[in-house]
Amino acid sequence: MSFDERTISTIQKALSVLGKKNFALIVHGGSFPSAINENTGFGTMNSNGGKELIDYASGIFNAIQLGPAGKTKSCDSSPYTGTIFSTNPLFVDLKELTTEAWNKILSIATFNEIVNSNPQKNNNKTAYSYVYNKYADALDEAYRHFLTRGNSQLKKEFEEFKHLNNRWLDRDSMYEALSIEHQNDYWPLWQSEVDRNLFAPNTIEERIEHGKRLVEISKKYEYDIDKYKFIQFILKKQNTETREYAKTKNIKMIADRQVAFSDRDIWAYKAYFLDGWMLGCPPDYFSKDGQAWGFPVLDPEKMYKEDGTLDKAGVLLKNLYKKMFRENPGGVRIDHIVGLIDPWVYKSGHKPKIEEGAGRLYSSPEHPFLSKFAIAKLDDLDMSLEADKEKRVKTLTDEQITKYGALIEKIVIEAAKEEGLDKNAIVCEDLGTLTNPVAAVMKKYQLQGMRLTQFVVPEEPKHPYRCCNIDEKCWAMVGTHDNEPISMWAKSMINTHEGYLHAKNLVEDLYAEAPNKDDIITRLTKDAEFLKQTKLVEVFASKAENVQIFFTDFFQIEDVYNRPGTSGDANWSLRVPDNFKELTPIDLPEILKQAIISRGSGFANEHKELVEELAAI
After folding, report:
1. Which of 24, 87, 245, 376 could make an S-S bridge to 548, C-beta 3.0–4.6 Å?
2. Tell me, what's the pLDDT at 567?
3. What is the pLDDT, as a whole number, of residue 286?
């Protein structure tokens, strides 16, 4: 189903009346659809199918929220473990490389073979292991032909690209060479201690030895190093062209910065991390031992110099955010914002539990090791609460809040400013853990967080995810990439006590003037479709100026993109179907109509004509 001009115009009027400034469709890179006869097994916004989705979204949405775009490992398809600088080669639109614009550096026969052999060509799923190897071979063919066929303009642009990006490109491509040398892309398994610590020498002698090794590997793998850089060049050109195309359709792309660092990044910047410590989550209802993510933590003592200016780790992080804001003027979503403000850390090789030495990096003045990084003092703590509790830091001065927010102010916000953007270009994923220091920093810098209505706690009248409590300066949504579609959630609530509590709150918030409240509650507890629809109404009826919706919810696809804690090709594999235009999306006009009505009879009467227009669609 596509939307005609009249429908689009009416929807836009309704969104404006409801105070919505941004309406974003969440689609991770690999989940983009393919055009007919172009399904290689992995999605990309750069493909013809990607542009078809951009065309479709234009007018209804004004933004697309992407997932992390980094290069992923052969054994792990999660975009949240990708590289911080290099882009995933699977986002290359191979079809374009078969055209005159690229001097046909990829044969159409190779492209067609990948499409025809795609084991998921008839399903809306990626074929990760298949494409990982197929793309490697295809891009090798493209690079070989580029060396002999590439025109002078492309070659000039390539040389400029290498020069402008050498700061990160040299290290990432060197890792690629050493992965070939050791026949393993996981550096801790490399036999050579020099290679494992190539960019982290401890002495002048080691620096000299490592320098010689760099020269040796650079010569031995010159072809592979340059090929790696060429693939990144293709991605830069295609990504830029796609974003420009989207701009002509009034669609902005919002990037996603994960909290993790990839193996490649850990190796490249090993000297900047806090030795022996990892980032994770403390024990909670879902995990009695906590979540040991295994992600390294940047060393606080290498973030800033004594005069307050950025040190090496700070410069690294700022360069990353500058690159992201420069390439994504639509903004950047920061995953797990608590990881930049008040992270939970644990000792490597241990569980992220208090009794095994874990704690909050900047909020543990009583900790034998972490105390030297503490911003909160002992007098600021509620010692009746354990170290993992959100409200443990009970008092903070403005000076302390500024220190907690230093990374946000001096790196993230400053990077946005230097690239011509403001803090409204920052979307903070603050779902779940929200410690007092995080809340204070968010408030001080007026950062936009998220409100996930699927996760409202119905027993808490003041819960921040409930419609009546959602404020203007945030992004509201029914679910993210980590949740089941709202339709599946609604079915799980039918004929349950929890479902009744949700229904009761929804009626209080959305049907305040209805004479038959009990009947509506009863229907909500028994009718999954009505409950789903009402949860969608809730998001648009809220005061939130910004709304996001995951593609499964919009296209009413009852399948899960990510099941946290699981791995393998089946996870992170769901895509927008290639025939998405034939799907029946949510009834957006009806949802917007009900959202207007839920604001009260006075508001609805003021916009009576618009309500009638929406009803007529």
Report:
1. 24
2. 77
3. 65
pLDDT at 150 (0 to 100): 74
> Which residues does the chain have with pLDDT short of 70?
1, 285-286
Q: pTM of this prediction? A: 0.96
Residue 616 structure tokens: 């007529």
The encoded tokens of residue 427 equal: 């979307």
Helix, strand, coil share of the chain (percent; to 5): 50, 10, 40
DSSP class of residue 61? B
Radius of gyration of the chain (CA): 25
CATH 3.20.20.80 segments of the chain: 19-254
Local structure of residue 350 (DSSP, 8 states): S
Residue 36 is classified by DSSP as: T
CA–CA gap between residue 167 and residue 169 (Å, rounded): 6
Q: What is the CATH number of domain 19-254?
A: 3.20.20.80
CA dist 580 and 167 (Å) reads 41
Contact 593, 603 (CB under 8 A): no
The tokens describing 136, both together, are 């490697």
8 Å CB contact between 212 and 194: no
Those residues whose C-beta lies under 8 Å from the C-beta of residue 66, and which sit 6 or more positions away, are: 27, 28, 29, 45, 253, 254, 255, 256
d(CA 62, CA 123): 28
Strand partners, 549: 25
d(CA 316, CA 346): 23
Contact 227, 143 (CB under 8 A): yes
245-273 burial string, b = 16+ CB within 10 Å, else e? bbeebebbbbbbbbbbbbbbbbbbbbebb
| Amino acid making up residue 36 | I
DSSP letter (8 states) at residue 81? G
